[in-house]
């Protein structure tokens, strides 16, 4: 009789272990999204089954079911929940790092664009300064008065000697040329005016 009881208890324990393992495997296969505490449920079912095989007393069956549920929760559900929490925390950390890298790249690209715009502005400023300097140098460049006198003679506007002296006679001839071209009469002999004298011969 005692051997029979021990045999039934051993069989019940083995069945409970197998049921718990089967439920745990089912839970693992069901995916990470499962929110059912199958370790607790499986442990309680296995405990209840073991209790039913060992005794017909409902208190014994209930007690073993509770004990099995607690064991399933401690051995299966809690470790699985902790693992899931760690995975979620790791994923959040990885996403935060990716977002930080994206922000850094955006800031780097923005800085490069600002630097490029500043460089373009500086290059434009230098170019404008260079143009003004070239224009100023052209205006300040000395004019060959003798050549101007010969051109004015060719236009029939100057009757004096070609002596290279910018006197009043040469100035009056320059004014007459400016009036002839519809320009403001300044009497100033400039490289631009010389070019116009040559072009209108």
Structural commentary:
The protein has 201 residues and is mostly helical. The chain has two domains: 2-102, no CATH class; 145-199, no CATH class. Helix content is 80%, strand content 0%. It contains six helices and no strands. It has helices at residues 2-29, 38-54, 58-140, 145-154, 168-180, 191-199. The longest helix has 83 residues, at 58-140. The chain is rod-shaped. The relative contact order is 0.06. Mean pLDDT is 77; it is low at 26-33.
Topology (elements, then pairings):
Elements: H1 2-29, H2 38-54, H3 58-140, H4 145-154, H5 168-180, H6 191-199
Overall shape: rod-shaped
Largest sheet: none
Number of domains: 2
Name the helicity range.
Answer: over 70%
Computed over alpha carbons, the radius of gyration is 52 Å
End-to-end distance, in Å? 143 Å
- The number of helical segments is 6
Order of helices and strands: HHHHHH
Q: What class would the helix/strand composition place it in?
A: mainly alpha
Number of strands: 0
- Tell me, rounded to a whole number, the average pLDDT: 77
Short description, anyone?
This protein is an all-alpha fold and 201 residues long. The protein has helices at residues 2-29, 38-54, 58-140, 145-154, 168-180, 191-199. Mean pLDDT is 77; it is low at 26-33.
Key features of this structure:
201 residues; mainly alpha; 6 helices; 0% strand
């Amino acid at each position: 009789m005692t051997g029979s009881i021990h045999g039934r208890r051993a069989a019940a324990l083995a069945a409970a272990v197998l049921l718990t393992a089967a439920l745990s495997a089912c839970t693992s296969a069901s995916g990470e999204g499962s929110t059912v505490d199958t370790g607790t449920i499986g442990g309680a079912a296995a405990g209840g089954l073991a209790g039913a095989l060992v005794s017909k007393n409902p208190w014994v069956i209930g007690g073993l079911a509770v004990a099995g549920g607690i064991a399933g929760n401690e051995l299966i559900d809690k470790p699985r929940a902790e693992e899931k929490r760690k995975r979620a925390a790791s994923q959040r950390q990885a996403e935060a790092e990716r977002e930080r890298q994206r922000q850094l790249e955006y800031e780097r690209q923005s800085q490069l664009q600002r630097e490029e715009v500043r460089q373009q502005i500086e290059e434009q400023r230098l170019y404008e300064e260079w143009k003004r300097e070239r224009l100023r140098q052209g205006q300040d460049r000395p004019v060959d008065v003798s050549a101007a006198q010969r051109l004015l003679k060719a236009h029939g506007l100057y009757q004096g000697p070609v002596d290279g002296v910018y006197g009043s006679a040469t100035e009056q001839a320059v004014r007459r040329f400016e009036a002839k071209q519809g320009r403001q009469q300044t009497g100033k002999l400039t490289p631009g005016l010389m070019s116009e004298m040559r072009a209108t011969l």
